[in-house]
């Protein structure tokens, strides 16, 4: 069995490119990781890493060894999970980073339902749109909306978010209702994330419309309130306006041209280092929202 010692630490260092980062992922000390790697290299009789003050990289031998070891570690982890999943008792703290009205209104309640199933589990949700460092900040996964940068992170689509254009009855009574996206150039529009709006139509190619208006905010609630106060036309994912539309405070407009919108994602650093509580929470959210798309207004 000695031949297996250090393999988990080796794969962790190879994938995180650092002894400290690997130690944080494995929940142990940096000295333990370094000691295990040294012992492994001693048994193999070759250096697996080229070390410098700023970077730890695989040697040629280390790269070849990693290709064999990574599948071994994943297979062992999956075998352990299959056994342990029969009697799951989640403990510790699940840390989730989220941003936006959708996360506040829908994801948070879903995670509350998840938490009810595991009384020993604590959930810490940080509502912040900043880019997080999953290791240093101790974040298990994040909920993000829109196009994702190619950062090497794992991203799983939670659901698509079709768009909707709305306005208050008072605004439409005073300024009239636009019948085509081009007419938005002559209206006051409430700008959320950007001032270029995209629309779709099966029989017409529509260029992106540059809009302007009297109110701009990156907060969905502030956009809704401004729209309800008659400050202009808003265009965001249609789930954002569900309550306002159902209660008559806002009116859908330009429905034939609503865009497909973007997607909400679950983002995390590396599946292999996710604790069981994070994996089960992710699976729960994916299942929870799998049929939720049918509730979106169209």
From TrEMBL:
Q: InterPro entries, alphabetically?
A: LysR-type_TF_proteobact-type, LysR_HTH_N, LysR_subst-bd, WH-like_DNA-bd_sf, WH_DNA-bd_sf
Identify the domain of life. Bacteria
Q: Does the keyword Iron apply?
A: no
The record's GO molecular-function terms, alphabetically, read: DNA-binding transcription factor activity; sequence-specific DNA binding
Answer yes or no on keyword Transcription: yes
Q: Per the UniProt entry, what are the Gene Ontology biological process annotations, in alphabetical order? A: DNA-templated transcription
For this protein, the parts annotated as crossing the membrane are: none
Keyword annotations: DNA-binding, Transcription, Transcription regulation
Q: Which residues form the HTH lysR-type domain?
A: 10-59
Pfam families tied to this protein: HTH_1 (PF00126), LysR_substrate (PF03466)
Q: Which family does it belong to?
A: Belongs to the LysR transcriptional regulatory family.
* Name of the molecule in the record: LysR family transcriptional regulator
Tell me which species this is from.
Vibrio qingdaonensis
């Amino acid at each position: 069995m000695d031949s297996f010692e250090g393999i988990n630490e080796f794969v962790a260092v190879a994938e995180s490119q650092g002894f400290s980062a690997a130690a944080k992922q494995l929940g142990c000390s940096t000295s333990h990781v370094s000691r295990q790697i040294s012992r492994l290299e001693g048994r193999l009789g070759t250096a697996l890493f080229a070390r410098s003050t700023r970077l730890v990289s695989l040697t040629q031998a280390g790269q070849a060894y990693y290709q064999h070891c990574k599948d071994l570690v994943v297979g062992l982890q999956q075998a352990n999970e299959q056994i342990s999943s029969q009697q799951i008792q989640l403990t510790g703290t699940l840390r989730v980073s989220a941003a936006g009205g959708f996360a506040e209104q829908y994801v948070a309640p879903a995670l509350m339902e998840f938490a009810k199933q595991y009384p020993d589990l604590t959930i810490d949700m940080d509502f912040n749109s900043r880019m997080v460092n999953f290791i240093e900040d101790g974040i298990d996964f994040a909920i993000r909306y829109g196009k994702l940068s190619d950062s090497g992170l794992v991203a799983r689509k939670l659901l698509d978010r079709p768009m909707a254009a709305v306005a208050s009855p008072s605004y439409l009574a005073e300024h009239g209702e636009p019948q085509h996206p081009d007419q938005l150039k002559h209206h006051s529009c409430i700008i959320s994330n950007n001032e270029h709006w995209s629309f779709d139509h099966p029989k017409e190619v529509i260029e992106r419309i540059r809009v302007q208006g009297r109110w701009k905010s990156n907060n969905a609630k502030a956009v809704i309130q401004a729209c309800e106060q008659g400050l202009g036309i808003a265009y965001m994912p249609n789930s954002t306006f569900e309550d306002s539309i159902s209660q008559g405070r806002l009116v859908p407009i330009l429905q034939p041209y609503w865009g497909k919108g973007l997607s909400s994602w679950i983002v995390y650093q590396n599946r292999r280092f996710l604790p069981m509580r994070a994996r089960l929470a992710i699976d729960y959210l994916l299942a929870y929202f799998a049929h939720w798309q049918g509730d979106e207004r169209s």
